[in-house]
Write a structure and sequence with these properties.
Length: 418
């Protein structure tokens, strides 16, 4: 049976020991994208079992050049491109394009984040591939969508945060806008890539046809705020802040450190008051709903902050959790693995694709699935970026920064010379 045309066929394990298969086993993805949204969307597909091959230009993904304390490697690049295999192709040259076209014969999904004018110029646009590869899922990640005056502009996370009102929602009311660090729009768009491609693959099983999947940072940034873009006729547009519960739910200072308290339900509000030594607040009808607590926050917060001085944030966390009050200490990243069960997740050893020392990489975003009791399947089975594909597949050899590749035959090795 032709595995190229059935996403339900399991792919051969990439290497010895890679025996765990996910729901997207048998699906091959070519990842031509760079930076975060497209590449991490493809990583999420790899988490679900897809075989993802990252194709970079001779200069490499620009994320490789970001500052990092890791020897000979970019921390951001490794974290975003785990579970992939790598290949260098110069699509501006006929031989490089020929290799890509040949690879499409056994490819289910192609993902890129080129600006709209680039694919037709390279000869890899959707209309061309729809005619020659009708089962291909063609996913495009861009900044501002497929049409409109800004469609050819490059899209960047924090620019979109500024343009869509996310920055204005941060910080305190009346204070300057603030950026949300951590590329939240990029990562949300990555989830949209994974869900859009998965839905397209499911539809292909019924229709037999591939389709175009478009994800933009603009639409992603707006979707993230869907609860805030609802207004009644004549209502002031600056009403989104009332979702903050008046400051009762939020970060609060303790004797040492800060702790986030959630008090949006009657149960959690009452538990918080009891454990903080403020039972009178739980019994006061003026504070018995989220809306009332928001209206009287200036009365509640001084009492709460005074009570929180009795213990450190870590001590309060233990107290509140035992009392069924939802909370969480504001901790440094270095302590995340020992917090909230994160330390139970194993790391993976991976050698840098530039030939650096062995690193232990703790994977984020892991997807767990099972088909019945005792049959837990962890979708983290593909080898880390840079490891060889295996027999009868494109073989990649790790060395240093990608520079060029031989393009004549698929059976040739792809070199990563210094």
């Amino acid at each position: 049976m032709d595995t190229r045309n059935k996403m339900t066929i399991d792919a051969a394990a990439g290497e010895a020991g890679d025996t765990v298969r996910g729901p997207l086993s048998g699906v091959r993805v070519l990842d031509l994208s760079a930076y975060i949204a497209g590449p991490y969307g493809c990583t999420l597909l790899a988490d679900m079992g897809a075989e993802v091959i990252k194709i970079e230009p001779p200069s490499g993904d620009n994320l490789r050049k970001y500052p990092s304390t890791l020897e000979a490697e970019s921390r951001a690049f490794l974290g975003i491109n785990r579970s992939k295999r790598g290949l260098v192709l110069d699509l501006k040259k006929p031989e490089g394009l020929a290799v890509l076209i040949k690879m499409l014969e056994s490819t289910d999904v192609l993902v890129h984040n080129f600006r709209p004018s680039v694919p037709p110029r390279l000869g890899i646009d959707y209309e061309r591939f729809r005619a020659t590869h009708p089962r291909l899922i063609y996913c495009v990640v861009n900044g501002y969508g497929e049409s409109g005056p800004m469609k050819d502009n490059a899209g960047y996370d924090q620019v979109l945060q500024s343009l869509t009102g996310i920055c204005s929602m941060q910080g305190k009311h009346g204070h300057p806008p603030e950026i949300v660090y951590g590329s939240v729009v990029d990562y949300y768009a990555a989830a949209m890539v994974a869900s859009g491609v998965s839905a397209a693959l499911f539809d292909r099983e019924r229709s037999g046809r591939g389709q175009y999947v478009g994800v933009s940072l603009l639409r992603s940034a707006l979707a993230m705020q869907s609860a805030r873009f609802v207004w009644a006729d004549g209502e002031d547009r600056d009403v989104g802040r009332d979702m903050r519960s008046g400051g009762v739910t939020g970060l609060h200072p303790a004797r040492e450190g800060f702790i986030y308290l959630s008090a949006n339900t009657p149960h959690f509000w009452q538990a918080l008051c009891r454990k903080a030594g403020l039972p009178q607040l739980a019994e006061d009808e003026r504070y018995d709903t989220v809306r009332k607590r928001a209206e009287h926050a200036n009365e509640i917060l001084p009492l709460l902050h005074d009570a929180l001085k009795a213990h450190t944030a870590m001590e309060w966390e233990n107290i509140f959790w035992r009392g069924s009050a939802e909370c969480g200490c504001a901790i440094h990243r270095r302590n995340v693995r020992s917090s909230a069960g994160a330390g139970r997740r194993p790391g993976r050893h991976a050698r840098s694709s530039r030939g650096g020392p062995l690193q232990r990489i703790y994977q984020a975003g892991e997807i767990r699935q099972h088909t019945g009791p005792g049959a837990v399947r962890r979708a983290d089975h593909w080898p880390a970026f840079g490891r060889s594909i295996g027999q009868s597949r494109l073989r990649a050899r790790r060395n240093r920064t990608p520079a060029r590749a031989r393009h004549h035959q698929l059976s040739h090795r792809c070199s990563y010379p210094p």
